Amino acid sequence: MSEVQTGDLLHVTGTVVQPDEPGGSARLSVMALQALEAAAVAVLHELVLDH
């Protein structure tokens, strides 16, 4: 999990449980998590920093 980044394509299997009270937050129990495809890595070209 420490290497997952924004844009990665994931397949998640689990259960969504509705909140006990109206307006409450739903809960997600994840049973399996599979990385299907990594996001493209942004490459910086000709980066120049001026002080």
Keywords:
mainly beta, 0% helix, 51 residues
Describe the protein.
With 51 residues, the protein is mainly beta. The protein has one domain. The protein contains no helices and two strands. Strands 1-2 form a two-stranded antiparallel sheet. The relative contact order is 0.34.
**How many strands in all?**
2
Task: For the largest sheet, list the strands in their spatial order.
Answer: 1-2
Q: Tell me the structural class.
A: mainly beta
Describe the largest sheet.
2 strands, antiparallel
Number of H- or I-type helical stretches: 0
- What fraction strand? 35-45%
Helicity level, as a percent range?
under 10%
- Termini separation (Å)? 37 Å
Mean pLDDT: 84
Q: Which regions contain 5 or more consecutive residues with pLDDT less than 50?
A: none
The secondary-structure element order is EE
The total number of structural domains is 1
User: How much is the radius of gyration in Å?
Assistant: 19 Å
Shape: elongated
Give a summary of the structure in a few sentences.
By secondary structure, the protein is mainly β. The protein is 0% helix and 39% strand. A two-stranded antiparallel sheet has the order 1-2.
What layout of secondary structure does this protein have?
Elements: E1 9-17, E2 27-37
Antiparallel strand pairs: 1-2
